[in-house]
Design brief:
Blueprint (H helix, E strand, L loop, with lengths): L1 H27 L6 E4 L2 E17 L2 E4 L5 E6 L6 E2 L4 E6 L4 H33 L5 H30 L12 E3 L4 E5 L7 E2 L12 E4 L4 E8 H4 L7 E6 L2 E20 L2 E10 L12 E18 L4 E3 L2 E9 L5 E6 L1 E5 L3 E6 L7 E5 L4
């Protein structure tokens, strides 16, 4: 029994020694590094900057009344199309009592003068027919009578304007009928029947009856950071994406860059505007939020690789090109000439070919 135990212990010690030797041997062996292989590709490359803003009409017209009063009837509502000169609403004039009394008094006086002028003319007319007065006197009397009638009519018109804001002789040009000044779409009608409105003057802007805009001429209005504004210029192409229309991308042309920045959240922002090209099949609403991608630089059919493969050393750049894969991967440090980058991929102008295989990131091994 003792002999068997001794043999067992010797065998166990031997196994432990052999296992330890194998473990130490494997540990001392150099670890083989295996890298992912990346191939260059041909593609278009663009470098862009993004400005946030919204879509709005180039011309948005505020329709205001030419008289003060009360909105009597509103004929249109937001969303309807209108033609230039089409009536949007009617304003009823509320006369000022002092002006109304003065106008009525003027009518009475003009009526008295007209009656007297008519009496005088009839008398002169009879005498003229009897050849008792000259033609000159007859003509003077006729002129005085006509002037009196004209003054009476003028007094009545003035009374109608004060009371109604309109005269019968000029109904089609009445300032009580609020008309659109352009062809377009009604964006907003902020008044209702019964609202008081005031005319525009030097002391106030007046009440807006409606907002009308030409929705066929839209612009993107946004802001761009001062770190990017020096790299853009008018006439640059712009790609617009609208949050409400995620399946569409719209072309635009940059046409305005503000010469003055505005500080927002500690950074200077510059306003930009771009003319938007909208297909007839797409409905755009004023005020849609949008992002404008401005192409700062592009390269067509460029040889590109992931920028993470580039090794920067001073003014030089390198990639590692695979020279052999058996028995282990071998790479050659190769200088390359780079071009533009979009932050993910970078253009290779010289140094490698399309069929080269480049060293990527190291693969993890157990």
């Amino acid at each position: 029994m003792k002999k068997f135990f001794k043999v067992f212990m010797l065998i166990l010690v031997g196994v432990i020694l052999v296992s330890t030797f194998v473990f130490l041997y494997n540990k001392s062996k150099p670890k083989v590094q295996v890298y992912e292989i990346v191939a260059p590709s041909i593609s278009d490359l663009e470098k862009t900057t993004v400005a946030t803003g919204k879509i709005e009409p180039r011309d948005e017209i505020l329709i205001k009344p030419q008289i003060s009063g009360i909105v009597d009837v509103v004929y249109k509502e937001a969303g309807q199309k209108v033609k230039k000169g089409e009536v949007l609403a009617k304003v009823k004039v509320i006369p000022e009592l002092g002006q109304l009394n003065a106008a009525e008094s003027r009518i009475r006086i003009a009526q008295i003068n007209a009656n007297q002028a008519e009496t005088d003319f009839n008398r002169v007319d009879k005498l003229y027919k009897d050849q008792l007065v000259s033609k000159e006197e007859y003509e003077k009397s006729n002129v005085a009578f006509q002037q009196a009638l004209e003054e009476l009519q003028s007094a009545k018109d003035a009374h109608e304007i004060i009371k109604e804001g309109i005269t019968k002789n000029s109904a089609s040009f009445s300032s009580t009928m609020i008309r659109s000044t352009i062809d377009g779409l009604i964006l907003d009608v902020p008044v209702k029947a019964g609202n008081s409105v005031i005319m525009s003057n030097t002391f106030n802007d007046g009440t807006t009856i409606a907002t009308v805009a030409n929705m066929n001429d839209l612009i993107f209005r946004g802001k761009i950071d001062e770190t990017e504004v020096g790299r853009i210029h008018e006439s640059m192409p712009v790609k617009l994406t609208i949050g409400a229309l995620q399946n569409f991308t719209f072309d635009a042309i940059l046409e305005y860059i503000s010469p003055k920045g505005v500080e927002e959240n500690g950074a200077n922002q510059f306003e930009i505007k771009a003319a938007v090209v909208i297909p007839d099949s797409v409905m755009i609403r004023s005020g849609y939020s949008a992002n404008a991608a401005i192409v700062l630089q592009n390269a067509k059919n460029a040889l590109i690789v992931p920028e993470s493969l580039i090794e920067f050393s001073g003014d030089s750049t390198f990639v590692y090109v695979m020279t052999d894969s058996v028995p282990a991967q071998q790479f050659s440090r190769t200088p390359v000439k780079i071009g533009m980058s979009d932050g993910i991929n970078i253009e290779i102008k010289d140094g490698i070919a399309l069929n080269d295989k480049l060293r990527g990131v190291e693969k993890k091994t157990n």
